[in-house]
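Replying to the earlier thread about multi-chain prediction with a worked example.

Input:
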Amino acid sequence: MRDNIPYRLSIRKSDRSEYERLQEKDSPLRDRANKDLFMMAMITGFCENNKVKLDARDGFIFDHYLTPKDLTVMKAIAIAESDSLSILLDKRQVYSIAEEYATGGILLLKNEIFGGDYGSYAKRLESKIIEKHREIFESSPCSEKKSDS
Amino acid sequence: MTENISKRILDKIRASDNPVAVKIFLQKMLFFEHAHADEPRVHYTDHYDEEIVICMKKYGDDTNDDR
Amino acid sequence: MMIDSLTLKNYRQYKDERIVFYSENNDRNFIVIQGTTGSGKTNILNAITWCLYGKELHLEKSKGLPIYNTGLMDELKPENLVNTEVELRLRDDENGIIIITRKLNLRKSENGEIRIVPSSFSNSEDGSEIMMQREVDRDIVTIEGPEYFVNMMIPEKLEEYFFFDGERLDKYFTKTSSENIQEAVFRISQLELFEKLISHLDDRKKDLRKKVCSLSSKAETVREELEIYEKSIKDAKEDRDRHVRDLRDAEAKEKEYSDKLRTNPNARKLEEEWLELTRDLDQIDSRIKKNQNNKFNYLLELTPPLFCRDAIITAKKKIEEREDSGQIPPDYKKGFLERLLEQGNCICGEDISQDAIDNTHRMEIESLLRKCDDITDITKELITENANMRSLLDGLGEFKKRHSEYINEFKEFEEERRTKSERLLIVEEDKKGLDIEQINTWENKLDEYRKIKENLIKEIAKKENRIEDADKKAKSLEKTLNEELKKKGKGEEAQKGIAFCEDCLKAAEDIKKGIMDDLRSEIEEKTRKHFLDLIWKKETYKDIKIDGDYNISVIHQSGFEGLGTLSAGERQVLALSFMAALNSVSGFNVPIVIDTPLARLGREPKKNIAKNLPNYLEGKQVTLLVTEEEYTSEVRDNLSDHVGKEYRILFEQKEIGSDAKVIPYER
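Result:
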């Protein structure tokens, strides 16, 4: 899908300051790359089912910074969203979905991080993950096999 | 002036078990030393030699402590 | 002898003061002068020693300040001559008066500078001049050679035993006390006269021997050799004695540092452990941080696939459906078919262009193309992504294991941290109050003195061997010499003289030793009596011992040696007792002046000393220079029967200089 023409994933212009906030000294994500912040925002938006169209676009990251795992996740979201594998034919559409979810998730992510006490975001994330994992893998006897189905 | 050869020293000499000549010599020389205590160079040789002879000769055979 | 009066003119705090010490009532032999610190109390003592010896022997607080009264000198007009003067009037046992006056001439220059004008008749370092007079039947007679007579009356070497600083007393027993006591006894008993006698007599003996031996050449040779051995014995003894003194000093130092370290035996180990623990804890903290970071990274990485798991599964399902239905991998790729049609040539070589004669082949390909899904062009990607999605999902399955690994590692670090922190607290508690640098210094010093001790012991042994060896040889030579002289029958008179000298020498040594022993024993007894009477912990100590080497022991009731455990106040009592004992055996009837005798003592000890001291110093005039804190009403009451004169120093610090007045005491 990725051709040789680099693509810049964008964020909403007005959201730039939110991303910058996530990189300030008191943020647990202060040492993270832009693409990680984007991915986290995207996941947050996806989990809350909150897609927001970008009005004013602001180039944020080049797609060659995304890892294969990142791309796989984005593609999975796009396929599930469009209910068609054909969406992979147009990477712009895949990225557009990712961008819209990221836009929908950035504020939620920011509140998630700064809503509690400093240092507890890591713990809250950990708890969320443990709970989600339990939900998935321990809710039925065949839960471990779910990934194969 | 106070006599400052302490009484203790003199009594000790007198009470000691020594010949009279020795006791008298010691007393005499102690007074001599005391009298010249502060003089940096005192000619003691002649005085000592004289007293050795005197005490030996005068009291040499004396066992009497009355001196 | 007693002090009749002391007059101070232009001397330190005193502009012009006359203090009368004499009281007609012999029973009232105590004089009390009370003053605050810095008011001029100790300078009364300094004035006395300056007058007698031209030296202020108790100058600590006033060091650096000029001897004259700065206020008085400031008022003086330039180019004026003035002097600092102290007059000490003494009253001897027959009530005769001796007046000792010391003067220091001063001139104020034009620019206000004060300069000393040394006297041409001065024998003192500071350029002051002493004069001594005696009152004889209302006539004043000047005594020639005042320095000599002063030293005869109150020898400078013994000054500290009559004019002493109560605050210095307690140091007496923390140093090499045996050395001090031996020296004190020696000085006080005038045994140096014996030393001189022995030295001179020995000299005469040698001279006589020389004369006798000159009559026989063999005798002369033996005599010369004997003299060499005698000299080497003398030198070896001097060296040995010096080493013994040094050894005592080293032992005292060893004990000093050993006592200091006794409570801190493991200081070095503690310090090393502390360093190690703090380093370890830093490392553990780093590891914990790394663990937490790694875990967080892992969780961040896990978040997208975990929370999009359903989407991944859906996508994967779609791909697998196509795989199962044979669409992936496809027989033909759409793009491939499109290119074929575009090219107009099939891979089998058939013409499939639009203008082809037979368009059946083209129509088949077009039919295939119509059936072809767009996705055939991205089959590779779909297969790859399927594998990637499987991998992501498998990764989710590993979460529990990996998460546990992080947690367990963290727990291990935490446990290690807790253990080490607890140990660190203990070490820090033990270290509290320890000055590690100080302790290291002490330990080094202790090692140093131990080494010095070892070396000195070896040296002393070497010297003793040398002495023994030389002694044997000397005795043998002496025997040979005597035999030789007898044989020759020469110089009989001289030989008798030599024998007489030897008898006198032996007698002198024996008497000297005997006196030292008697004195030691007397001082021991008196010190013991005074100490046990004065000490307030009556049930704590039972005896004082001064052994043959003049080592002082304070024997605790339980039998152990308690000198090292005495408090400062107790040491003060011991020192006062000892000084009182020394005074009573000295044979010198010199007035006593004690500066600050009761500092650092509690209420009871102060009272006790005030009550008993007059008994120990009976018959002597005693002047006490006290502070207000020392001279409590209880002390005053206890001393009152013995106090003939009582004063207070009224001190005023002026803009320039100060002014002290000695006025009668009024509560």
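Helices of chain A lie at 16-21, 34-47, 68-82, 91-115, 120-137.

Feel free to reuse this layout for your own posts.
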